[in-house]
Write a structure and sequence with these properties.
Layout lengths: L7 E5 L2 H12 L4 E13 L2 E11 L5 H4 L4 E3 L8 E3 L11 H67 L3 H12 L4 H10 L7 H15 L13 E6 L6 H14 L4 E5 L7 H12 L2 E4 L3 H10 L5 E5 L8 H12 L5 E7 L4 H11 L6 E5 L8 H10 L3 E4 L10 E2 L2 H9 L7
Parallel strand pairs: 6-9, 6-10, 7-8, 7-9, 10-11, 11-12
Antiparallel strand pairs: 1-3, 2-3, 4-5, 12-13
Bound molecules: guanosine-5'-triphosphate and magnesium ion.
């Protein structure tokens, strides 16, 4: 049987549409020679994917023999091939003829499968190459436009401030590190170094920062009795910080007790109890001003008492009022606001304004290890007018705790890409 004469190509958006066209033109017994996905039209080869079927009209004798030929299922349009119900085989077709026919059909099907596989592979490779090219181009465009943005921003800054390039460059560095632009400019101007040498300006700014940054002595190194409450938004690391501070105080030879007022969150008491048990400390649970006072009384032999509180959203003003009411009547000697280092300037202002009614004395910073910019630590000094207490750069208790120093914070601000961490 020669198929070359009647071979026709059909293209359509879907296999079922293409098959319908084949059947319409070549009849229901049309022989499908191949079916593959092809790209058509589009820009830069990113074309629309279509289905291409190569089919031939069955030769006349197949009218009789078509009952043993493969036919495409009519009901679902899939390429499934099946044998049609047996019809009477004319006497001249021998068993051998049939065997040969079956072998031929098997080989045709095998060939079709290979073609579909190859077509799929080709289209996948084509797509992969295009995607890789597009994403590389996107990256290049991204870094070129960010470089351009930086140059333009520095040029604008230089024009607006009239400062030499070296100072403008250090302002940009502080801003890139999350310092608010006004604060960054005031800091660089305050450093009184007009030299047009970035190294000299940076050194002058570093000295200025070290003189500016206010830190408070750590609890473990402060003599006297301390009842310290830790407050702040949810999940910033208050309880973990308390466990770290408790360990630091014990190492410093202080007698430590803990109180938790977080009876709100499930398992919050157990979380602190676990640390207390590990360190052999007493833990009291209280959830009223009188309860906290009683708990502090019961811990009267401790020189450091750390009070944990439930995390509150800065928007939950009713809860923050309740917290404020409880702590103001509970003989607390100092209150630390715990914040996460990745916080932006808007959130910082909003959060401090919400919590300041609790009476904040110091600000502790957690999750330095998760952040690549640290300007918020410096911004907070202007927003809160409060000294910095502890810095935490990890989840490990007690290792990931340090008392803030001006040198450390200066390094965080002047070393880029989070390397100061
Ligand atoms: N990466 C990192 N994770 C921290 C740090 N401090 C605390 N965490 C993790 O932050 C998660 C929350 O810590 P908690 O101490 O339970 O936070 P919290 O503020 O007490 O939470 P609430 O009581 O629910 O408001 C835990 O998985 C801690 O291990 C830190 O400095 N760095
Ligand atoms: Mg907690």
């Amino acid at each position: 049987m020669s198929t070359a004469a009647a071979k026709k190509i059909y293209r359509a958006d879907s296999l079922s549409t293409a098959l319908a066209e084949v059947r319409k033109e070549l009849g229901p017994d049309a022989i499908i020679l191949s079916a593959k996905e092809v790209q058509q039209g589009g820009i830069m080869g990113i074309g629309k994917s279509r289905v291409e079927i190569c089919a031939v009209k069955p030769p006349r004798e197949s009218k009789v023999a078509n009952t043993t030929k493969p036919v495409v299922r009519k009901n679902n349009g899939l390429k499934a091939v099946r044998s049609a119900p047996k019809a009477k085989v004319p006497g001249r077709r021998t068993r051998n003829d049939l065997k040969n026919e079956v072998l031929r059909l098997r080989s045709t099907i095998g060939q079709m499968r290979e073609e579909v596989k190859a077509a799929r592979l080709e289209s996948m490779q084509h797509r992969d190459n295009t995607e890789a090219l597009v994403s590389r181009l996107n990256l290049e465009i991204g870094s070129a436009s960010s470089a351009l943005r930086n140059v333009l921003a520095e040029a604008r800054l230089a024009r607006r401030t009239g400062l030499p390039d070296a100072q403008v460059s250090v302002i940009r560095q502080l801003v890139d590190n999350g310092v608010e632009p006004g604060i960054a400019e005031a800091t660089v101007r305050g450093s009184l170094q007009n030299a047009d040498d970035v190294y000299l300006v940076r050194r002058a700014v570093a000295e200025f920062l070290m003189a500016q940054i206010r830190v408070s002595p750590s609890i473990e190194n402060s003599p006297g009795r301390h009842v310290v409450a830790f407050v702040g938004p949810t999940g910033v690391g208050k309880t973990t910080t308390i466990a770290k501070v408790a360990a630091a105080c014990m190492v410093a030879g202080r007698r430590v007790g803990m109180v938790t007022t977080d009876t709100y969150r499930i398992a919050a008491v157990d979380q602190l109890r676990c640390y207390a048990d590990l360190m052999g400390l007493r833990l009291e649970v209280a959830n009223s001003p009188q309860g906290v006072r009683d708990a502090v009384n019961r811990l009267n032999r401790c020189s450091v008492i750390l009070v944990d509180t439930a995390g509150r959203s800065p928007r939950a003003s009713v809860e923050i009022d309740k917290l404020s009411g409880m702590l103001s009547r509970a003989w607390i000697s100092e209150t630390h606001l715990v914040l996460s280092a990745g916080m932006g300037p808007m959130d910082l202002r909003y959060t401090y304004n919400s919590f300041k009614r609790v009476g904040i004395d110091k600000v502790d910073w957690t999750k330095l290890d998760e952040s690549s910019i640290f300007g918020s630590i410096y911004n907070a000094q202007f927003v809160t007018q409060r000294p910095i207490g502890y810095l935490c750069a990890g989840q490990r208790v007690p290792e990931d705790l340090e008392a803030a120093t001006p040198e450390r914070i200066t390094r965080l601000l002047l070393v880029t890409n989070g390397e100061g961490r």
